[in-house]
Structures are given as structure tokens and as C-alpha cells.
């Protein structure tokens, strides 16, 4: 009976001061909607930056690194009285690249953590067109596995990426590199290696990734053509690029892979500390901003509930004089706060979704983007509803406890 009466009192409080109730609901709505929008926007920006960064960067790189051999080879060859003077000692790398890549590729295929991989033959070369000469990187690739890993076809400004698989004399140039050489599609470009080998290729595609190190200094040819240029065997590669399901797990997978191969296994964080730090800072910033917004909304509800308790302090005293105990008073004000939180939360999530969709339509012509990036994640909506309810519960409980401790005799006496 008392519980039913408590609900009637809650309804009376909510409807007697409609403006005050609406202000409380709007404060929750604002907090939740901004939480949804900012998280969707930050996740969209993070996702886009990650996608751009990993358009040419693999999660793990396997290559033949210079060995750190510091052993003294003369120690066992001379007796102790013999004086030996060694100056300018050097470690010589006898083996270049990975000569038998099939063994490493077989190991990668057997690991469940590996999602996809592609071999490459990367060569430092000079690109020439008439008097123009630009030094850069020529990358011999397997067209299909390169597409599976980096999706270069998405960044083709001219020509088709798949045509590279059918043309041993074809080359895809970065857009900035083509501009420096003053060449266009179907023109010829000369490529010269450090050992003096020169070969002519026809430009069958121009790629634009918006990454300066790729667009201004990189070109792609078929991997077989790159091996011919270096006079290497069919199993020779300089790098094996590997992608896994979650790029944040690259260190763990690299540690797992390292004992299985005889070459350097390098996770992306090891060679790109700035990118790793930027990702962490963006995530911290998003959490800090979202938490601040919800906290501000919570303080708004607390202030409104506190004002309600102060305004209705005589009514609370009368209720306690009529037999309502402190638990009933807490129940009344807490229920009132939770209803405000639920209504504000539902409207806030809908409003946040609408704002996100509107922002997602704003033109933003940079890199591969056409509009501002937004990511819609169910986790954001679940977190918003849970955190919103918790915030309103705490914001309602503190004034409710204050109301429950009121001495009706002192209030009625004035």
C-alpha cells in the first residue's frame, strides 16, 4: 500500500513542476547525446587514422637483419702470450634478404593468429625520365596477396591495380613521383639499381595514398620482375609483411613467431613508436572528454534533486509525521531520479545518433575521406545507458538520503 502511495507521490513531484522535470531530463539528454556523438566521432577518427597508417604498414615485418655478433673469433686461435691488435672490427652480413621464403611462409600459414601475409622484394633505385632523376624505393609484390593485406586498389588514381599481375614490364608509380618525373599513364620510365642494372617499364597505374613516403618515392612492379632485376632465385624476398586479427596484439604474436623463424620479427610498435603513442593519447582523450560530460550532467541532476528536496522539505516532514519512514523517503526521491535518468538516457541516445548521422554527412575532402568519419558502435550505447543510470542514481541518492534524515518536529516547528 505504501509502495503504491510512494509511486503516486513520485508522479505528483514529476508532474507538478514540469519545467523543472524537463530541465533535469534535458541535462541527462545533453550528457548522453554528447557522449554518444563524441565517442562515435573519436572512434571514427581513430579508425580512419589507423586505416590510413596501415595502408602501407603491416602489423608485423619479417626480414633479414644485420646480426649482433660480438664474439671474439681470435680468442681460440692464439695463445695468451701472443699480442693481437684488432682495429675497426665489423660484422659482415653474408646473407642478403630471405633466400628460401617458402619455409617462412609455411610457418606463417600454420599459425592461427596470422590473418594474411605477403612477400616483397624491396630495392633502392633511381627513377629516370630524360634528365629527371629521383631516388626511391621499388617494391616487387605479389599482386593478390598485396591487395589482401594493404588494399592498394582503393588508392589507385589512374589505371587498375590488378593489371600489374599480367604485365612483367608494368609499373605503378606514386602520384608525387610521377609528377617529379613529369610522366603520365602509359609513358616509359627507366629504373636503375645500385649495381648499375637499368630497365625500362611502362606506367600502367598511378597510386595516391596521401602518405608522402609512398606517393613521392615509391613504385610497384611484379615480384618476379623485381627478382629478375636483382638476378635472384624464385624464393628470394627482402621482406614478409604480416597482418593479424587485432593489431594491438602484434607484440604478443611477434614474440610467439620469433622462435619459429631465423629472421628478425618486428611488430609495428617497435618501429613506429610515435604512431603507438598517438593512438594511446587519442583513446585517453576520448575517455576523459566523455567522462567529463557525463560528470557535468550528473552534477546538474544532483543540483536539481537537491533543490527539489529543499523546496519540499515541509512536505517531507509531514510525510514522516504521517508514518513514512526514511526508507520510503529515499525510495520516493530515488525513483524520481531514476525515471529522469531513464527518460533522459533514451532521448539522449536517439539524439546522439541523429547528431552523429548529420555530422557524418558534412563534406571533408582530405585523403580518402569524403565526409567526416563516424563509427557506430553498440558498446558506446551500452556504456552510455549504464553510466547514465549510475550517474543519475548517485545524483539522486545523496539528496534522498538528506531528505530521509530530516527531523519532522524541527521542520514543522520552523
UniProtKB/TrEMBL annotation:
Its main location: membrane. It comes from the Bacteria. Keywords: Cell membrane, Membrane, Transmembrane, Transmembrane helix. InterPro entries: ABC3_permease_C (IPR003838), Lipoprotein-release_system (IPR051447), MacB_PCD (IPR025857). Residues 288-408 form the ABC3 transporter permease C-terminal domain. Belongs to the ABC-4 integral membrane protein family. LolC/E subfamily. This is Efflux ABC transporter, permease protein. It comes from Microscilla marina ATCC 23134.
Amino acid at each position: 500500500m505504501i509502495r503504491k502511495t510512494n509511486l503516486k507521490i513520485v508522479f505528483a513531484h514529476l508532474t507538478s513542476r514540469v519545467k523543472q522535470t524537463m530541465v533535469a531530463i534535458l541535462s541527462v539528454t545533453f550528457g548522453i547525446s554528447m557522449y554518444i556523438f563524441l565517442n562515435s566521432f573519436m572512434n571514427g577518427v581513430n579508425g580512419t587514422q589507423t586505416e590510413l597508417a596501415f595502408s602501407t604498414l603491416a602489423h608485423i615485418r619479417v626480414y633479414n637483419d644485420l646480426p649482433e655478433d660480438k664474439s671474439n673469433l681470435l680468442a681460440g686461435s692464439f695463445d695468451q702470450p701472443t699480442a693481437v691488435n684488432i682495429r675497426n672490427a665489423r660484422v659482415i652480413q653474408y646473407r642478403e634478404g630471405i633466400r628460401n621464403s617458402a619455409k617462412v611462409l609455411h610457418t606463417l600459414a600454420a599459425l592461427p593468429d596470422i590473418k594474411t601475409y605477403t612477400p616483397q622484394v624491396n630495392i633502392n633505385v633511381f627513377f629516370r625520365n630524360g634528365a629527371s632523376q629521383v631516388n626511391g624505393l621499388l617494391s616487387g609484390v605479389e599482386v593478390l596477396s598485396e591487395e589482401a593485406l594493404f588494399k592498394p586498389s582503393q588508392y589507385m588514381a589512374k589505371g587498375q591495380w590488378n593489371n600489374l599481375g599480367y604485365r612483367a614490364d608494368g609499373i605503378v608509380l606514386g602520384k608525387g613521383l610521377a609528377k617529379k618525373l613529369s610522366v603520365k599513364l602509359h609513358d616509359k620510365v627507366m629504373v636503375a639499381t645500385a649495381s648499375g642494372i637499368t630497365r625500362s617499364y611502362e606506367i600502367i597505374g598511378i597510386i595516391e595514398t596521401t602518405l608522402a613516403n609512398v606517393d613521392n618515392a615509391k613504385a610497384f612492379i611484379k615480384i618476379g620482375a623485381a627478382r629478375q632485376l636483382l638476378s635472384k632465385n624464385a624464393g628470394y624476398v627482402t621482406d614478409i609483411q604480416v597482418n593479424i586479427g587485432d593489431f594491438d596484439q602484434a607484440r604478443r604474436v611477434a614474440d610467439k613467431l620469433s622462435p619459429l623463424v631465423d629472421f628478425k620479427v618486428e611488430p609495428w610498435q617497435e618501429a613506429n613508436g610515435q604512431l603507438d603513442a598517438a593512438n594511446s593519447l587519442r583513446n585517453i582523450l576520448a575517455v576523459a572528454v566523455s567522462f567529463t560530460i557525463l560528470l557535468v550532467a550528473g552534477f546538474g541532476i544532483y543540483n536539481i534533486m537537491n533543490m527539489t528536496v529543499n523546496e519540499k522539505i515541509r512536505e517531507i516532514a509531514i510525510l514522516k509525521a504521517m508514518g513514512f519512514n526514511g526508507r520510503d523517503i529515499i525510495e520516493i526521491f530515488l525513483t524520481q531520479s531514476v525515471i529522469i535518468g531513464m527518460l533522459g538516457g533514451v532521448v539522449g541516445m536517439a539524439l546522439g545518433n541523429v547528431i552523429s548521422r548529420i555530422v557524418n554527412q558534412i563534406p571533408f575532402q582530405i585523403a580518402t575521406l569524403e565526409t567526416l568519419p563516424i563509427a557506430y558502435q553498440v558498446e558506446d550505447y551500452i556504456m552510455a545507458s549504464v553510466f547514465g543510470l549510475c550517474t543519475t542514481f548517485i545524483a539522486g541518492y545523496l539528496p534522498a538520503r538528506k531528505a530521509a534524515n530530516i527531523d519532522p518536529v524541527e521542520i514543522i516547528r520552523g
